[in-house]
Amino acid sequence: MTQAHRRRIFSRPRKRWRRLLWLVPLLCIAFTVFQVAVLRFVDPPFSAFMAARQFEAWGAGDWAYRTAYDWRDLDAMAPHVPLALVAAEDQRFPEHHGFDIDAIEQARRNNARGRKVRGGSTITQQVAKNLFLWSGRSWVRKGIEAWYALLIEALWPKERILEVYANIAEFGDGVYGVQAAARTFFGRDADALTVTQSARLAAVLPSPRRYNARNPGPYVQRRTRNIERQMRQLGGPGYLDR
């Protein structure tokens, strides 16, 4: 066997491995596109955040931990519920395409001045993070979050993004979605929530394990009033129709 022949034989496996290495990222991209496309029409039975929280509780020995999660379509919620979420979390939601550059820049300036760390995440980014990813502040996770946010904006209508967010957001320890929160904290269904109750649920979103929508402290009461005022300034539920 000549030396050239031996080189050809040993080079074949390397070429196959190179092709496989190119194939892996393509398969990952195809898988994420498939995930997002399917969930445009299929209501998710759980989110990555819910699963992580469940494992966290079991890891701490809390075997009694239970998740409250009861899906409701957007039209089965009071019309001011989605408006309260937008007023509290992402007022430019109907206008942007997944990223609010002004909010990101403002958050960067606040953080650079040493103020309380503040994010500039849109509702779309929060859906991407809670539905598909893990918690953390690494650049890798933020990059994957941005990719999912782009896919969500490209493949879902705005109504679907808001519907999924309203159902997977955490409103209390183990309480996910507006319907479960309405039953847990107010003893009623999501379609019977008042304007103030909707605003109060939105008010606890920055830290739902710390704040309580049923027995609000001064911060939640103050934030609830601010959200109600923002809801009026936005023009009511018709703002989302535009």
Relevant terms:
single chain, 2 domains, three-stranded mixed beta sheet, 11 helices, globular
Shape: globular
Rg over C-alpha atoms, rounded to the nearest angstrom: 22 Å
The computed structural class is mainly alpha
> What is the CATH class name of the largest domain?
Mainly Alpha
Report the biggest beta sheet as strand number plus sense, adding barrel if it closes. Answer: 3 strands, mixed
What is the annotated CATH architecture of the largest domain? Orthogonal Bundle
**Oligomerization state:** single chain
Indicate the low-confidence ranges by residue numbers: none
Averaged pLDDT, please? 87
The tally of helices reads: 11
What is the N-to-C succession of helices and strands? HHEHHHHHEEHHHH
Strand arrangement in the largest pleated sheet: 1-3-2
Would you identify the CATH H-level superfamily of the largest domain? Biosynthetic peptidoglycan transglycosylase-like
Tally of extended strands?
3
Number of domains: 2
User: What share of residues are in beta strands?
Assistant: under 5%
How far is the first residue's CA from the last residue's CA?
75 Å
In which range does the helix fraction lie? 55-70%
CATH third-tier fold name of the largest domain: Penicillin binding protein transpeptidase fold
Give a quick rundown of the structure.
With 242 residues, this protein is mostly helical. The chain has helices at residues 3-39, 48-59, 80-89, 101-112, 123-132, 139-155, 158-168, 178-186, 195-203, 218-234, 238-241; strands spanning 68-69, 170-172, 175-176. α3 (80-89) packs parallel to α9, α3 crosses α10 and α5 (123-132) packs across α7 (158-168).
